[in-house]
Amino acid sequence: MNTVRFSTDKIVNLFRDQKVATLPQLKAALGTDIAVTVFRKLSTLPYRSSYSHCGAYYTLDPIAQFDELGLWSYRDIHFSRHGTLLNTAATLVSQAPAGYFADELESVVQVAVKDPLRQLVNTGRLYRRPLTGRYLYCAVDRTRRQEQWAARQSQHHQGDDVQAAKALFYSLLDEQQRRLYAGLESIQLGHGGDQRMAQVFGLDVDTIARGRSELLRAEVVRGRVRRRGGGRVAVEKKRPKS
């Protein structure tokens, strides 16, 4: 029995002619009714499936003109360098300087994102916390999340130059400095200061209480973000002695 050979040139030419294509169109171009044959040929090419329309459209990377966020739209069909809508949402939120509200992200990706965002939070890929009656979605990484929260607070207090400046200054500090600065602000506020600073800076109340305590007891470690012995054990120390 002779083996039927399908050339990838046929689907490459199809993409060149119309930029995007559906699975039925790709089958027709190859002259086959078997989806596996199409995907076998696509696997040899730098192809993308759309994150809109339930992934029903395909294109090639050389054809897509991705913007600085890694997104490209052809008519009402949307593609991303990051792959699926879940991966795209996770990446864009984590990279955003001030995180995203759901409606802000929707205006960027041009599809509904509430369910994907909820799924990303539930699976631990994103973090969210309430702000002005809405959820702000941020990166999971603690340091990055604090930077995003501080940047958002700076935007939120644009009418208040002092509060905006404090939020901006906070975003420039390292881990220990942020804890101490939040603790100092809490001391100045007095009763309820820890809770108030937790809301402003996106820190845990316990972290602010620790910073406040360190300041009052003069237990500040100069020149180090963590106390000696903190963090990961050095590689040399992990090796067993011969």
**What's the order of the H and E elements?**
HEHHEEEEHEHHEEHHHHHH
Rounded to the nearest angstrom, the radius of gyration is: 25 Å
How many helices? The count is: 12
CATH class of the domain at 8-63: Mainly Alpha
Helix content: 40-55%
Rough shape?
elongated
SSE class = mainly alpha
Strand content: 5-15%
Main pleated-sheet profile: 3 strands, antiparallel
Q: Mean pLDDT score, rounded?
A: 85
Fold-level CATH name of the domain at 8-63: Arc Repressor Mutant, subunit A
Low-confidence stretches: none
The counted number of beta strands is: 8
How far apart are the first and last residues' alpha carbons, in Å?
A: 65 Å
Q: CATH architecture of the domain at 8-63, please? A: Orthogonal Bundle
**Spatial order of the strands forming the largest sheet:** 1-3-2
Write the layout of secondary structure elements.
Blueprint lengths: L7 H11 L2 E2 H8 L4 H8 L4 E3 L7 E4 L10 E4 L2 E4 L4 H11 L4 E2 H8 L4 H9 L4 E5 L2 E5 L3 H15 L4 H11 L3 H15 L3 H9 L3 H12 L18 H4 L4
Antiparallel strand pairs: 1-3, 2-3, 4-5, 6-8, 7-8
Helix pairs in contact: 4-6, 7-8, 9-10, 9-11, 10-11
Account of the protein in words:
With 242 residues, the protein is mainly alpha-helical. It has helices at residues 8-18, 23-30, 35-42, 85-95, 102-109, 114-122, 142-156, 161-171, 175-189, 193-201, 205-216, 235-238; strands at residues 21-22, 47-49, 57-60, 71-74, 77-80, 100-101, 127-131, 134-138. β2 and β3 (57-60) form a beta hairpin.
